[in-house]
Amino acid sequence: MKTKSVYQLSARQILLLAFATALIAIGATALLFNLGRFWQAKGDSNHAFAEQAPPEISNPSAVTDEQNNIEVYKAIAPGVAFINTTSYQQDMWGDIEEGRGNGSGSVIDTNGDILTNYHVIEGATKLTVSFGGDKAYPATVVGGDPDTDLAVIKIDPPPGLTVVPLGDSDKLVVGQKVLAIGNPFGLDRTLTTGVISGLQRPIRSKPMPGAPNGRPIDAAIQTDASINPGNSGGPLLDKYGKMIGINSQILGPSGGSVGVGFAIPVSIAKRVIPQLLQYGEVMRPKLGANLISVESLISQGYRLPVQSGLIIRNVVPGSTASNAGLRGLSQDSTGSVALGDVITSIDGEKMNDLDDLYRFLDKRQIGDTVRIELIRDGKSTTLPVKLLGSSNRVGSSTTRRTQ
Fold it and tell me: Would residue 336 show up in a list of annotated catalytic residues for this protein?
């Protein structure tokens, strides 16, 4: 039996490959936006975050733990929003069904901007916000980022709006006291307390079309403070009343708290909020290529010239990959499908799977030039590549995310 070249895939194999990962054909116009718009706001944006601890909170070392709990709650709870959502969808008989949900949020400025989870407001047709009374304020979505599960909504600010100050999640330690305020099961502004149980926990954002496993969210904060449905989007606070995280997920077989909850670090929110306020979305660099990990193919029995890396299946016209001359799979006149480029590392960081690429790109800005190390025609080569971006508008059911 004739042995196939390790540098080629048969036509039958490539058909199987197509079933495993859908081909993405997105026109250049969908990916190329006004380049000036792509110079995104960074973490040091002009947006001024409130960072001073509320004066009503005494030095924690000078009061009892109980008194500290009371003071933090009194100072911060008025700035924790109760978010109610209404959505409508058509059933199989054509009838319109109404869905309702609720979550939590934190007022982040005196303009009436409220930070919450993206999954709290996803698909909502109507939003209202309350602050512990009968008064409900209509809210609109300013922007959302499904990749980090963060969103900003806005109300017309009433007088005396309490702003939740943002702390520093880069200096947290396991064992540190934390407090969570939210609306579990619709119970208005409930306080729970606990400690930081772990740091740098990898979690995933809610899956979207084109990303069945969701994007990785690194460095999540694990806490044993009770978090339940309805707490999502609310603040995880330190003993000074500063928000250090945004409560987002729980790990529990019954869907309720078993003492393992996760919060998105406020450091991520500080990077995301300015872009949501300015653009309504987060602008990220993209390669503009449909990729497959080498290891996943080897596990299926394919013979390949490398043991790890990312195979380029195809590139999107007008994208970063296209402009850099990166090559996807090709087919000759005999029907044999040959490998194009296999990305092994970028700026020295190994690219073993798509998560590695996501993490790398999240640290870069549109316009940055990186060095992509790849295997082409059996030889190692390095190409300088200038990163472009693409949009990932929230609310689009047809969004597909290439990298």
Answer: no
